[in-house]
Amino acid sequence: MTWLTAFLVTGAAFAVIDLIWLTIMGGAFYRPHLGDLMRASPNLAASAAFYLIYAAVLTALVVAPAIRTGAPVSGLAVFGAGALFGLGAYATYNLTNLATLKAWPLPIVLVDTAWGTLLTGAVAAMSAQAVAALAGC
Hints:
- By secondary structure, the protein is mostly helical.
- The chain has one domain.
- It has helices spanning about 5-35, 45-70, 75-100, 105-135.
- α1 (about 5-35) packs across α2.
- The chain is elongated, with a radius of gyration of 16 Å.
């Protein structure tokens, strides 16, 4: 399997799961905490750029190396590496906002960082195992 296959699987899984989360939690959690900071509808170009970049980096740093070894993919090890990547990325975003914006609430920092950590780890593990299976490994 190619890097492109791993990127497509990773990007699709991440975007679909995250969009489900945001659809459910947007009105229930994010809007009550962020209020007027949220747009009425998302900026689709910025959203697409985020998903493309995040999936590319997650693929390059976590998913592809897990498959490249030729050994069976350890879902737990890939989950851990992906979760660490997600923690770094989401904590950077949320803690920077907490440090620089007047109205960035602590519950957003905690929940969004936890979500990004869990989502990134789970998608990395699922993607690595799916691509390995497609490749017959």
